[in-house]
Amino acid sequence: MSIKGKLSIVITLFNEEENVRPLLNQIRESLNGFSYEIILVDDGSSDRTVAEVRAVAEDDTILIQLTKNFGQTAAMSAGIDHAAGDYVITMDGDLQNDPSDIPALVEELESGDWDMVAGRRANRKDGFILRKIPSRIANWFIRKWTGVKVSDYGCSLKIMRIDMARGLGLYGELHRFIPVLVQLQGGTITNMDVKHHARIHGKSKYGLGRTSRVMSDLVLMVFFQKYAKRPMHLFGGFGLISLMAGMSISMYLLVLKIMGQDIWGRPILILGITLVLVGVQFLTFGIMTEILMRTWLSASNRNPYKIRKVHKRN
Fold it and tell me: Do the beta carbons of residue 13 and residue 43 sit within 8 Å?
């Protein structure tokens, strides 16, 4: 297959010593004839992952070793920052993604002139209760709230053009919302089915505990989509509604007082108003803090990770 550019395969690793060797073998077999580089980012593994990578590294391999575990988003950002290809492909290092799908992803990207093709795990080989059901619920919420019609946000296997990848501005745990970040840049996105395998070696790094983080990040994504360039439309609207509600309640209570009624025996009303105001305040502070963090990272040119060493074979 002939393609227009070089591929950068970005893979984040955390304690995947048993998966490294077969993963690299599968990638090389699948991409025979392609121009590519494999960028492996070790996110502070405590096992022999780094040693295994160095043992099987070839001229196509770059190993980025982070100083500690910064999380998948930061590790992915480090890999993208070092990418020299025209297209960036992201995938997990646990052998659940299949490298043989990469040529089809490349073909779909080029044939449709897309900016990104997101994988959709067909016949997903995960637990139904703990993995599939929460994933389906999360995918539905994300599609509903953001309007970005990606079927499987949890699938790490994606391909995107390098300009889109470098404009993602990844930090925190926003790797789950890469399609939304691409859309915010005006990118075009499509889905395609990819294979999925059950994990054979190692333990899954995901659990139900991430649900609250996904939902809070979803609120942030919706804010970026709708109000990032006009925050007064959001905060001003809440402010006016709160002010009008407060004035209406105050006028109502004043009328009752003039009529001789006791207005101090209604704690539930005070509690309700207090809870609403506190909730709005906390959401507002959370969003504003995220904006300040994003601005700080951009303006100071700081990265959300720290590299210990980059290993290359010359």
Answer: yes
- pLDDT confidence band for 34 (50 / 70 / 90): very high
Contact 9, 28 (CB under 8 A): no
Q: Work out whether strand 36-42 and strand 7-13 pair parallel, antiparallel, or are unpaired.
A: parallel
Do 172 and 292 reside in the same domain of the chain? no
- Specify the CATH number for the domain of residue 137: 3.90.550.10
Q: Are 154 and 112 contacting, i.e. CB atoms less than 8 angstroms apart?
A: no
Q: Are residues 210 and 292 in the same domain?
A: no
> Which region holds residue 64: left if phi is over 0, alpha if psi is between -120 and 50, else beta?
beta
Residue 296 pLDDT greater than 80, yes or no = no
Residue 80 falls inside a structural domain: yes
Q: What b/e readout covers 174-197, taking b as 16+ CB neighbours within 10 angstroms?
A: bbbbbbbbbbbeebebebbebbbe
CA atoms within 13 A on the CB side of 121: 23
User: Which segment of 38-42, 72-76, 132-136, 157-161 scores lowest on mean pLDDT?
Assistant: 132-136
pTM of the full structure: 0.78
Dist. CA 79–CA 179, nearest whole Å: 18
If asked whether residues 207 and 265 sit together in one domain, one would say no
The total of other beta-carbon atoms located within 10 Å of residue 234's CB is 16
Q: Would you say residue 43 lies in a domain? A: yes
Q: What is the mean pLDDT of the chain?
A: 83
| 1 in a structural domain | no
Residue range 144-165: mean pLDDT, rounded: 90
Number of alpha helices (DSSP H) and beta strands (DSSP E) in the chain: 10, 8
**Residue span of the structural domain in which 178 resides:** 7-225+302-312
| Model confidence at 201: pLDDT above 90 | no
Banded model confidence at residue 162, pLDDT cuts 50, 70, 90: very high
Q: Tell me, yes or no, whether 253 and 118 share the same domain.
A: no
Residue 2 within a domain: no
Domain count, the chain: 2
